[in-house]
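Q: I have 353 residues here and want to know how they pack in 3D. Can you give me a structure?
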Amino acid sequence: MLQSDIELKLSSYDYHLPSELIAARPVAVRDQSRLLVYDRKTQMVTHTHFDQLSTYIPRGDLLVLNQSRVFPCRLIGHKSTGARYELFLLNPKGRRGERDGTTVVPAMIRSARRKRVGEQILLAQGGKAEILESRQDGTFLIEINQEPLLDYLNQVGQVPIPPYIRAGESDARDRSDYQTVYAKELGSVAAPTAGLHFTPSLLDSLKSKEIGCAAVTLHVGMGTFAPVTTTNITEHQMHQERFWIDQENLDKIMNVKRGIVAVGTTSLRVLESIARATNATNPDQLYATDIFIYPGQKINTTSGLITNFHLPKSTLLMLVSALIGRERCLELYQEAIKNNYRFFSYGDAMYIR
């Protein structure tokens, strides 16, 4: 089998991770997480901590941060019969419903029962949701008797942590833990996790060393948790996510004289989407991207990537493999496992330079 054929097989991105290395909580101080630094030119691996990041980034480089903010989109409800429903709203605002005091919003619904149009779901504090429409992509259009919706979500909604963290059951701590310190634009259902390691003092340290920062916004959707199910990874259909960038930050990126370091796979996907599109350079305009980056594709926009350690067989692992090669990527993951790095959303980080 040719190497290129191996790289297109889903099974080629599998690895074994001891369950005790899945981080259930972040470290007490964000930038005290561990950092594996990999130098592509020298092949050298360095083990350090995230607060030392500025030591490894060249002066004059530009970090690109995703400033999207997670909203408490998870609602737990039940029918009058007692059947449990779990709702994941896909938009923090929705649109005003035809009935007074209601909001219409797209959502994913989990239930052991079949979901039918017209069904009503009872929510906390007098909330009620009615299923208006079942859509082809598996989502639903629902009407909630709350307006403005965001006020209600801030009262009773839960942060949608991934299912591999404490079985997806979030608590009050996650409202701050699962948010970057620079989060600004509300709209994500999952955190851009590479950014969770940054602290205000670390950002100041980077600035003092003339390492710049630019901000983009990509709202992470529920599709980020969707597994790849096709044997050939090229047949996988990525979900669409919304992104935009303002003029000031676009100018920073376009005029950078040194390297660009993407903070997280979401930032890298924005940069590559802009580079590959002919119409995605107008600032302040909302765009959608379903870009899927895997080995065989060339990444042209960045000199480095800061990212967490990702799930086996995930599109994020494939993206990292596109940057450094599948075999090398899996070797580095084994190195991290051997050294007891913590994995996934609340885990440690890797800086590829």
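Q: Anything worth noting?
A: The longest strand covers residues 103-110. The chain has two domains: 13-70+171-352, 74-156.
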